Amino acid sequence: MKQKLKSHSGAKKRFKFTSKGKIKYKKAGLRHLLIGMSSSRGRKLRKIGVLDKTNVDVIKHKLPYKN
Length: 67
Prior knowledge:
Strand content: 5-15%
Number of domains: 1
Largest sheet: 3 strands, antiparallel
Strand order of the largest sheet: 1-2-3
Helix content: 25-40%
Distance between the termini: 23 Å
CATH topology: Factor Xa Inhibitor
Order of helices and strands: HEEHEH
Number of helices: 3
Structural class: alpha+beta
CATH architecture: Irregular
Protein backbone atom coordinates (compact mmCIF):
# COMPACT_ATOMS: atom_id res chain seq x y z
CA MET A 1 0.00 0.00 0.00
CA LYS A 2 1.26 3.46 -0.88
CA GLN A 3 1.98 5.89 1.95
CA LYS A 4 -0.02 9.07 2.37
CA LEU A 5 1.66 12.40 1.73
CA LYS A 6 2.10 14.77 4.63
CA SER A 7 0.66 18.27 4.45
CA HIS A 8 3.02 21.17 5.10
CA SER A 9 2.22 22.28 8.66
CA GLY A 10 2.98 25.94 7.99
CA ALA A 11 0.72 26.01 4.93
CA LYS A 12 -2.10 24.32 6.87
CA LYS A 13 -2.19 27.24 9.29
CA ARG A 14 -2.00 29.99 6.68
CA PHE A 15 -4.18 29.01 3.74
CA LYS A 16 -7.81 27.94 3.31
CA PHE A 17 -9.69 26.87 0.20
CA THR A 18 -12.93 28.49 -0.96
CA SER A 19 -15.80 26.39 -2.27
CA LYS A 20 -14.80 27.24 -5.85
CA GLY A 21 -11.22 26.08 -5.26
CA LYS A 22 -9.50 29.44 -4.85
CA ILE A 23 -6.98 29.87 -2.04
CA LYS A 24 -7.48 32.60 0.54
CA TYR A 25 -5.06 33.98 3.12
CA LYS A 26 -4.71 36.80 5.67
CA LYS A 27 -2.71 39.79 4.50
CA ALA A 28 0.48 40.74 6.32
CA GLY A 29 1.20 44.06 8.00
CA LEU A 30 -1.30 44.38 10.86
CA ARG A 31 0.80 43.11 13.78
CA HIS A 32 2.97 46.02 14.92
CA LEU A 33 4.22 49.50 13.89
CA LEU A 34 0.63 50.51 13.16
CA ILE A 35 0.81 54.14 14.31
CA GLY A 36 2.51 55.33 11.14
CA MET A 37 0.07 53.49 8.88
CA SER A 38 -2.79 55.36 7.27
CA SER A 39 -6.22 54.20 8.31
CA SER A 40 -7.22 53.52 4.71
CA ARG A 41 -4.30 51.14 4.31
CA GLY A 42 -5.26 49.37 7.53
CA ARG A 43 -8.79 48.89 6.26
CA LYS A 44 -7.51 47.43 2.99
CA LEU A 45 -5.26 44.98 4.85
CA ARG A 46 -8.22 43.66 6.86
CA LYS A 47 -9.78 42.09 3.77
CA ILE A 48 -9.06 38.46 2.97
CA GLY A 49 -6.53 38.02 0.18
CA VAL A 50 -6.99 35.56 -2.69
CA LEU A 51 -3.87 33.94 -4.05
CA ASP A 52 -2.99 34.74 -7.66
CA LYS A 53 -2.56 31.92 -10.14
CA THR A 54 1.25 32.07 -10.16
CA ASN A 55 1.44 30.66 -6.60
CA VAL A 56 -1.57 28.33 -6.63
CA ASP A 57 0.39 25.27 -7.81
CA VAL A 58 2.95 25.66 -5.00
CA ILE A 59 0.30 25.74 -2.27
CA LYS A 60 -1.68 22.88 -3.80
CA HIS A 61 1.51 20.82 -3.76
CA LYS A 62 2.01 21.59 -0.06
CA LEU A 63 -1.61 20.70 0.79
CA PRO A 64 -2.20 17.50 -1.21
CA TYR A 65 -5.55 16.45 0.30
CA LYS A 66 -7.30 19.81 0.37
CA ASN A 67 -9.70 20.76 -2.42
